[in-house]
User: Which sequence fits this backbone?
């Protein structure tokens, strides 16, 4: 039993029921404080300085050092293994517990700081980034639009979790502005491309997992062991330039339409914090090969939402989806990724692919929501959106809720700036 998950636990830190960060969450991130990068966590509206807790002696008995906590990234901390990182999570919950006898509350000003006054930094040094394509509804919708409804799903799709290797260097933290990309596009009824700013800029609602344990080159990971290799989850907006994508993607897949930016939320919510929210996934009726078979509940009931806020106007919710809709789950993705002996490394990021649900209000991209521009969405300022315009801020949010405990992810948002 992970003690930090105890739904009856109450903290001496005050927060209201709508927070993403109750004492049962204890996510991990990196903040910048006093000119240093430090491992931190969060409760309510406060950031927890874990390095400060270490120096105060509250982490005594756990096998880690200050070098893991005063660090530019979480990679070294994660590499200590789940035995250590879960012990830290449990200890933090004890330190923050209303009934705690550790004397932490009296010293709170030494390790709690207001979140609003704290600058966050990229949580991990991402070595490799893999993007899957694991929502059946999304793959079907895109197949209908880019090809035809009769052959919407490619013949391989129900047999393996389709994915491709993306680019890690352009993954950026929430609240970093994104410049509209430029590139080649093929105008309708033309055989010659033009060059210019993307006219069909889109978001992709995704959840990403951070690899928490490396496997050696040549070694495979089974679905039964895959959870050991998943540290935690973040929200992920995989920005996409649809007009550039449509022209460039044949035959090797997307390239410049995807690698200009992807926005990541700053908190990694551990797989252990999400354990109570496991649920069954969609039935996989097509017989799958043995290495992709799994047992137990491997999907997660996480409510997801996307809103668009035009410049000077209010945000409008354009999608309500759920991570549980994923056809291929994360343990299948890990097993498939490594079945050829490919080595995953601590800090690698694997994204789910756009998460679309069964109904139009649960689609995870503007391409689908506005159905290739044929069903524009109304904004509160009288304008409409088929794709994302300059000045728009797109925000992803996500939370899981059960037995009065609500575990959320914080912000994953970014504003679009005009092309040069
Ligand atoms: Ca994607």
Assistant:
């Amino acid at each position: 039993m992970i003690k930090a998950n105890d739904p009856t636990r109450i903290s001496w830190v005050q927060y209201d029921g709508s927070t993403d960060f109750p004492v049962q969450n204890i996510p991990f991130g990196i903040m910048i404080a006093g000119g240093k990068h430090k491992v931190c966590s969060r409760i309510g509206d406060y950031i927890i300085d874990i390095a400060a807790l270490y120096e105060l002696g509250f982490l005594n008995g756990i096998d880690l050092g200050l070098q893991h906590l005063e660090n530019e990234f979480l990679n070294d901390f994660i590499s200590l293994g789940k035995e250590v990182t879960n012990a830290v999570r449990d200890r933090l919950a004890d330190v923050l517990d209303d009934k705690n006898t550790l004397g932490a509350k009296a010293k709170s000003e030494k390790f709690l700081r207001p979140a609003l006054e704290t600058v966050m930094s990229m949580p991990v040094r991402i070595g490799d980034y893999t993007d899957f394509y694991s929502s059946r509804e999304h793959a079907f919708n895109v197949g209908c639009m880019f090809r035809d409804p009769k052959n919407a799903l490619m013949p391989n799709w129900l047999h393996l979790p389709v994915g491709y290797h993306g680019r890690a260097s352009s993954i950026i933290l929430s609240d970093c502005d994104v410049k509209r990309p430029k590139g080649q596009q093929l105008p309708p009824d033309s055989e010659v491309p033009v060059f210019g700013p993307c006219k069909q800029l889109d978001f992709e609602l995704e959840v990403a997992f951070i690899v928490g344990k490396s496997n050696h080159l040549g070694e495979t990971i089974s679905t039964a062991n895959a959870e050991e290799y998943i540290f935690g989850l973040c929200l992920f907006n995989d920005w996409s330039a649809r007009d550039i994508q449509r022209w460039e993607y044949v035959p090797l897949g997307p390239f410049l339409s995807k690698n200009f930016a992807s926005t990541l939320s700053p908190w990694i919510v551990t797989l252990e914090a999400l354990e109570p929210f496991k649920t069954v996934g969609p039935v996989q009726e097509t017989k799958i090969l043995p290495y992709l078979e799994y047992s137990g509940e491997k999907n997660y009931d996480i409510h997801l939402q996307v809103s668009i806020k035009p410049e000077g106007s209010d945000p409008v919710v354009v999608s309500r989806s759920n991570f549980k809709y994923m056809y291929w789950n994360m343990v299948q993705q890990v097993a498939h990724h490594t079945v050829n002996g490919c080595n995953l490394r601590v800090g690698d990021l694997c994204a789910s692919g756009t998460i679309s649900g069964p109904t139009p209000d649960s689609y995870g991209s503007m391409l689908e929501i506005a159905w290739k521009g044929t069903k524009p969405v109304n904004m509160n300022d009288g304008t409409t959106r088929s794709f994302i315009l300059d000045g728009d801020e797109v925000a992803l949010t996500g939370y899981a809720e059960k037995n009065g405990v609500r575990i959320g992810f914080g912000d994953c948002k970014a504003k679009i700036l005009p092309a040069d």
Summary: DSSP finds eight helices and 27 strands in the chain. The chain has two domains: 29-121, 129-417. The CA atoms of residues 377 and 385 lie 5 Å apart.
